[in-house]
Recover the amino acids of this structure.
C-alpha cells in the first residue's frame, strides 16, 4: 500500500474535528458544517481526484492485516463517538442554540454516528473479545445493537435473496425499503437469537437473551446522559434526549440507505427450491471513489467483503467486473431519496448486471479472480 493512501485513512478524523472546530471558530451557525462537508465537499473531491482501482499486493496482505495502525483507526472512532455525544449534550445544556442550529448539530453528529455503525460492522466480523465489546459499545450509542446479530448471521447468509430484509428490490423506493429492513431486520435478529437460545436449552425471556439487553442498555445510557446535564443545570434539559434520539435515527436511516445502495435489485439465482447459488463478487454494487472510500474504511469495496467477510478493511480489493455505482456513497444516498432519479439511473445498470449475471463462463472468470 502506498504511504499516501495509508495516511489517507486519517481522513476519517476530519469530520469530528470539523464538527467541533467549526462550532467554536464559526459559532452556532456552523453546526451544519459536518453535513455540508460530507454531502457537498466530499463528492466534489471524489470527482476531482482519480479513482482508486489499485489493490494490495498479495505479498503485503499479512503485514497490512497485522498492522496495529489500522486497528487504532477504527477502535479510536468508537471513543470519538462518545466524546461527540458528551460534547453535544454539554453544548445543548449550557449554550443557547436555536432549533435550526440544534438541527444542524443533530445532522452533523448523526453523519459521524452513521460511520460508527460502519466501524461496528468492521469490528463485528472479528472474533476477539475486544473487537466484539467495541462493536456493541458503538451500536449502543445509536440504539441499533441487534445489527450485530442480524448482519453477521442473517444478512451475510441470505444476502441477494428474497428472504433478506437488507436486500432492496428493483423499483422499490427507499421508504418502502426502510419499512422492510427496519422491521424485518429486527424480527430476523430476534428469531436468530431465539434459535440460539433453544440450542443451548435457555429460556427466551431470560438474561441470556442478548436482544433483551440490546433493548435495555441504550435506554439506560440515554437516560443517564440526559440526567447528568439536567442535574448540573438544575432543570430538565429536553434538548439532550432529542439530540440523542435524533442522531440515532439519522445514523440508522443513513446506514439502511447504504444497504439499499449496496444491494439494489441484485438477486442470486435459485438453483433448487429455497437454495441459492453461492455469493460471488457480482452480488454487490461497488464504488472506487478514493475520498469517500478512505472515509468509509473501504466500505464501498463491498463485493470483496461479502466474499471474504473476515478480511480487514485495509486489504479489501476492487474489481472492475463487479457492478459499479456511478458515484460514491454520499451522492448515491442523496439520489436514493429521489426515487424517479434513482430508478432512471440505476435500473439501466441493474439490467446490464442481469445480462451478465447468468453467464456461467463470466461468473467463473470473476470468481477465479477473487480467489
Amino acid at each position: 500500500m502506498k504511504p499516501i493512501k495509508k495516511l489517507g485513512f486519517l481522513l476519517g478524523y476530519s469530520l469530528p474535528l470539523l464538527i467541533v472546530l467549526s462550532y467554536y471558530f464559526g459559532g452556532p451557525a456552523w453546526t451544519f458544517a459536518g453535513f455540508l462537508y460530507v454531502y457537498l465537499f466530499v463528492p466534489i473531491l471524489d470527482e476531482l481526484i482519480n479513482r482508486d482501482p489499485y489493490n494490495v499486493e498479495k505479498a503485503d496482505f499479512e503485514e497490512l492485516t497485522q498492522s496495529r495502525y489500522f486497528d487504532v483507526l477504527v477502535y479510536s472512532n468508537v471513543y470519538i463517538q462518545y466524546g461527540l455525544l458528551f460534547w453535544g449534550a454539554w453544548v445543548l445544556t449550557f449554550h443557547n442554540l436555536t432549533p435550526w442550529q440544534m438541527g444542524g448539530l443533530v445532522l452533523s453528529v448523526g453523519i459521524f454516528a452513521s460511520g460508527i455503525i460502519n466501524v461496528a460492522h468492521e469490528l463485528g466480523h472479528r472474533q476477539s473479545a475486544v473487537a466484539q465489546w467495541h462493536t456493541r459499545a458503538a451500536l449502543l450509542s445509536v440504539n441499533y445493537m441487534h445489527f450485530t446479530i442480524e448482519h453477521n448471521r442473517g444478512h451475510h447468509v441470505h444476502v441477494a435473496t428474497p428472504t433478506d430484509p437488507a436486500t432492496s428490490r428493483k423499483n422499490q423506493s427507499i421508504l418502502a425499503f426502510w419499512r422492510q429492513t427496519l422491521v424485518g431486520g429486527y424480527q430476523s435478529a430476534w428469531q436468530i437469537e431465539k434459535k440460539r437460545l433453544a440450542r443451548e436449552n435457555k429460556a427466551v425471556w431470560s438474561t441470556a437473551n442478548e436482544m433483551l439487553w440490546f433493548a435495555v442498555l441504550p435506554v439506560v445510557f440515554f437516560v443517564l446522559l440526559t440526567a447528568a446535564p439536567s442535574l448540573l443545570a438544575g432543570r430538565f434539559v429536553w434538548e439532550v434526549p432529542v439530540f440523542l434520539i435524533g442522531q440515532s435515527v439519522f445514523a440508522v436511516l443513513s446506514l439502511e440507505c447504504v444497504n439499499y445502495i449496496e444491494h439494489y435489485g441484485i438477486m442470486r439465482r435459485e438453483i433448487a427450491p429455497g437454495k441459492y447459488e453461492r455469493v460471488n463478487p457480482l452480488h454487490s454494487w461497488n464504488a472506487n471513489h478514493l475520498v469517500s472510500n478512505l472515509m468509509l474504511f473501504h466500505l464501498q469495496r463491498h463485493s470483496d467483503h461479502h466474499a471474504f467477510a473476515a478480511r480487514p478493511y485495509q486489504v479489501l480489493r476492487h474489481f472492475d467486473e463487479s457492478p459499479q455505482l456511478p458515484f460514491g456513497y454520499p451522492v448515491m444516498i442523496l439520489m436514493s431519496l429521489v426515487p424517479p432519479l434513482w430508478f432512471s439511473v440505476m435500473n439501466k445498470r441493474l439490467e446490464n448486471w442481469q445480462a451478465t449475471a447468468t453467464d456461467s463462463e463470466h461468473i467463473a472468470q470473476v470468481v477465479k479472480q477473487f480467489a
